[in-house]
Amino acid sequence: MFVGLGANLGDTTATLDQAERALAVLATTRVVAVSPRYRSAPVQASGPDFLNAVVELATDLEPAPLLAALHEIEATHGRQRPYLNAPRTLDLDLLFYGQRSLNTPSLVLPHPRLHERAFVLLPLLDIAPDIEHPAWGRLQALRARVAEQEIQRLT
User: Is 93 marked active-site?
Assistant: First the structure.
């Protein structure tokens, strides 16, 4: 399972650190890998630059309970949703859940826009370079599509 992390309000470094720790202590869950962090300009959003990463998890939680846990972590960081793509203290997106495809009103898997956003695609490829999407194949081949997006890998 892969979770995208992002924040562009407050102390984004501390927020992502805390979110990674919160993911690591979810019931029946462990962190397998954490990508490098990236700074990126908002895409279809406003506000300051985002700090982003991707975390790979191993979990026994099913997709809906995992999503609920992600929303709880966001809420502890003051996440509000006043309008679509509003600036955020923390955003946790379930990107992939194994090879499962799911399309419900509350959750679409794999994440429907992950291949369009450098701030998701690049950190995901850092920790899973051979990952494949059930419809699009190897995501590595889609890297060129996000090349024009403003993003910086942090060390």
Answer: yes
